[in-house]
Recover the amino acids of this structure.
């Protein structure tokens, strides 16, 4: 068994923390783990991509273009930008809350309608699931817990090789105690939402 | 971050964390660096834990000094580690080239963190060539786990040969993450003593000539060690008549995505194990060389075959099959499918049919560099200015709306080229460089400009931190870690000591006032220096400096002229659907730059 997750978003959204939780859970489950992260200049408000691969005899820190089993999109435009990491069988989870690039915020460029972004991926694959992770995180207590919502959502993905309980426990081990309840509540909301329909 | 001070168990470590744990297990007692991606995390960790780990650690002012202090520790008998990014080794190459002539007494390892694809760099030079150039042995790990073990091996090689060893990594090793097991630590002496030996350590010509012979003997011994090293081994389908020779992260792609080939995995890559390679060639109908960047292994393979009168057809870069540019990825292996069995890669989905907004890296909200650029643009007006920029966050000044980086070479390079523009054109050169870059290598070109009467304006963007690489302290900050405290070094005092014709300190958050002073500096018929001083916003947050109240726009005064977004272009300024500008309170740092350029005084602090 080998499983590859590509996690995309914007610096500051908690992409690296999410990758650490998933990676540590895979290690706990007894799998080999290889990951690749973006550090340095690219982090200054730019797009962030983190690759996580686990399974038997996994050693390469990168996945082939098109080789992802799962694309976790923390931001709609970044999800669309990286759809080429997927193939026709890949699962895609997309957070619907946009983070505006600075040239958009300043009015020099425009950000496409989110509905249009969703439709553009649906034209390519039936495997897109959307989630309002930021809104669910607010329900749990704070918008910053959106990454915990996303991890909960992953636990509900069809055929995901790591158990919900293991992910939930690993999340609990990796967040500061004072944010434990917030993160677990956010995780549960993500899981429940993704388990419906 | 994982606890790197524990002696058992396993953890999911970043390559740079694994390397740091390798230092601790190897009993390294001295480490030095100048920060540079992809090596920086090693220093960030050591800044926090070096005293607990029993390691003296410093951020030196540049890579050359870092090399020199670590060299002194190693010739005094303790294990030292100096580390930097690939281009940093150019700055350190001067001491590095002579050090092998003298050799070391304690083990010394030099890490060069190369950056194929130039993710965070100005070039993608292949520093493996420094090994044959300096005759230093070289090792190349492929994964975080192997990197940790190879640190230990590198110290053993260094001490067996009494010479430094080059430890060559790439971004996909430093910034990869994998499972690493922890082991106990070697006990080594904490303090050294320098036993004088002029013939060895004073490389005047007579001694250098003799030391050259010693160096060549050590090089021959290193080759024997490489022949017998467990870091060079055969794996894969060993009886195949297709052979792959590979090193570094390339090995991971070969391991997972190529089937049915014998693989010679090289970890000790200089000197190369000639006999082992010849043995591997036996019975092969074809050899494929998988290595990123330059054909280093491949050219050496041709040389070994020529010397030994054997020939096996080689697939690699010289025949054009594999690219010399940019890092490899799993799909790069598909270029080899005519020669070996490569795993099938699923076809990627096509791009979406929606135009997506670009998201390039950008200066932060409230970054004082925005104010410096906006002010200089205003001060320069229609003057024909060439902006010589440098290496740091402010290289992002090349992006719109500023476009104020016309020529960028290397650390400290802007001030030097500014002098050259003055002497060779009628344009006005302005050099931008950060405080850390000024200390690193910006001072000599300023002295040279004064000496040669180059009429340049230097703008020192003094945010009191080495920001781009993760907020490391520099001499302007002063030091306060590892039990050592030092005072901040005075940039103004240095500049005035050089005797420049004009020097002023400005607050870039006040764009209008800064522009007036910059105009004065541009008008000086000589060398002028502006020290633009305000804190890095990320560092201010990390140090929990008292937050300023955020700004807000008064809709009754805003005339939608967009001067604020056009001049300082702060990401915290948002244009709403009705055309009014608003500030994003979650991002706004309260610096007031936007307020200082607003012609209608419409931007004020949020009332408390």
């Amino acid at each position: 068994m080998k499983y590859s997750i590509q996690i995309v978003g914007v610096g500051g959204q908690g992409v690296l923390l999410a990758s650490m939780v998933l990676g540590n859970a895979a290690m706990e489950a007894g799998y080999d783990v290889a990951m690749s992260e973006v550090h340095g200049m690219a982090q200054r408000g730019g797009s962030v991509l983190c690759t996580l691969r686990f399974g038997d005899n996994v050693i390469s820190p990168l996945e082939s273009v098109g080789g992802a089993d799962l694309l976790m999109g923390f931001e709609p435009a970044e999800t669309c930008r990286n759809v080429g990491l997927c193939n026709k069988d890949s699962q895609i989870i997309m957070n619907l809350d946009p983070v505006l690039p600075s040239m958009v915020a300043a009015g020099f460029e425009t950000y496409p309608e989110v509905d249009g972004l969703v439709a553009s991926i649906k034209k390519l694959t039936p495997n897109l699931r959307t989630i309002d992770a930021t809104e669910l995180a607010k329900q749990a207590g704070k918008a910053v817990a959106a990454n915990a919502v996303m991890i909960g959502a992953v636990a509900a993905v069809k055929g995901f090789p790591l158990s919900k309980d293991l992910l939930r426990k690993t999340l609990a081990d990796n967040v500061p105690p004072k944010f434990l309840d917030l993160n677990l509540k956010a995780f549960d909301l993500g899981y429940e939402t993704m388990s419906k329909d | 971050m994982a606890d790197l001070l524990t002696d058992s168990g396993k953890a999911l470590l970043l390559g740079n964390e694994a390397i740091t744990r390798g230092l601790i297990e190897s009993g390294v007692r001295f480490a030095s660096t100048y920060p540079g991606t992809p090596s920086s995390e090693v220093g960030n960790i050591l800044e926090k834990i070096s005293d607990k780990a029993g390691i003296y650690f410093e951020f030196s002012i540049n890579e050359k000094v870092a090399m020199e202090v670590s060299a002194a520790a190693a010739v005094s008998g303790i294990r030292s580690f100096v580390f930097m990014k690939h281009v940093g080794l150019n700055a350190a190459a001067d001491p590095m080239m002579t050090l092998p002539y003298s050799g070391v007494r304690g083990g010394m390892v030099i890490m060069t963190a190369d950056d194929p694809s130039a993710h965070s760099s100005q070039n993608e030079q292949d520093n493996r060539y420094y090994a044959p150039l300096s005759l230093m042995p070289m090792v190349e790990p492929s994964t975080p786990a192997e990197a940790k073990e190879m640190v230990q091996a590198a110290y053993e090689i260094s001490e067996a040969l009494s010479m430094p060893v080059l430890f060559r990594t790439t971004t996909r090793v430093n910034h990869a993450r994998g499972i690493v097991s922890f082991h106990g630590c070697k006990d080594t002496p904490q303090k050294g003593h320098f036993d004088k030996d002029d013939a060895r350590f004073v490389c005047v010509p007579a001694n250098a000539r003799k030391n050259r012979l010693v160096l060549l003997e050590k090089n021959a011994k290193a080759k024997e060690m490489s022949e017998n090293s467990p870091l060079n081994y055969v794996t894969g389908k060993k009886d195949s008549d297709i052979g792959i020779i590979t090193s570094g992260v390339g090995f991971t792609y070969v391991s997972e995505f190529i089937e049915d080939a014998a693989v010679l995995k090289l970890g000790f890559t200089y000197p190369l194990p000639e006999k082992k390679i010849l043995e591997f060639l036996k019975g092969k109908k074809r050899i494929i060389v998988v290595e990123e960047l330059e054909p280093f292994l491949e050219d050496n393979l041709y040389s070994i075959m020529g010397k030994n009168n054997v020939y096996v057809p080689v697939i690699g870069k010289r025949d054009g099959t594999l690219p010399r540019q940019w890092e490899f990825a799993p799909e790069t292996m598909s270029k080899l499918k005519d020669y070996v069995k490569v795993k099938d890669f699923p076809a990627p989905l096509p791009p979406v049919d929606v135009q997506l907004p670009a998201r390039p890296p950008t200066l932060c909200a409230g970054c004082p560099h925005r104010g410096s650029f906006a002010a200089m643009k205003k001060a320069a007006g229609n003057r024909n200015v060439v902006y010589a920029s440098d290496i740091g966050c402010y290289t992002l000044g090349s992006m719109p709306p500023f476009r104020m980086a016309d020529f960028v070479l290397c650390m400290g390079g802007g001030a030097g080229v500014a002098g050259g523009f003055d002497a060779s054109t009628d344009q006005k050169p302005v050099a931008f460089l950060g405080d850390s870059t000024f200390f690193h290598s910006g001072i000599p070109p300023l002295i040279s400009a004064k000496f040669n009467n180059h009429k340049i304006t230097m703008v020192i963007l003094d945010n009191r931190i080495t920001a781009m690489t993760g907020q490391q302290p520099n001499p302007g900050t002063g030091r306060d870690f590892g039990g050592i405290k030092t005072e901040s070094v005075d940039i103004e005092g240095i500049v005035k000591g050089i005797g420049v014709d004009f020097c002023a300190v400005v607050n870039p958050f006040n764009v209008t006032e800064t522009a007036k002073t910059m105009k004065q500096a541009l008008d000086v018929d000589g060398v002028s220096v502006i020290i633009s001083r305000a804190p890095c916003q990320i560092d201010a947050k990390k140090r929990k400096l008292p937050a300023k109240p955020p700004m807000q726009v008064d809709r009754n005064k805003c005339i939608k002229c967009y001067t604020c977004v056009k001049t300082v272009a702060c990401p915290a300024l948002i244009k709403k659907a009705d055309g009014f500008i608003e500030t994003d309170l979650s991002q706004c740092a309260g610096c007031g730059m936007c307020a200082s350029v607003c012609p209608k005084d419409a931007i004020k602090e949020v009332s408390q």
The longest strand of chain A covers residues 86-95. The helical segments of chain A are 15-28, 76-81, 102-105, 114-122, 133-140, 146-155, 164-174, 180-195.
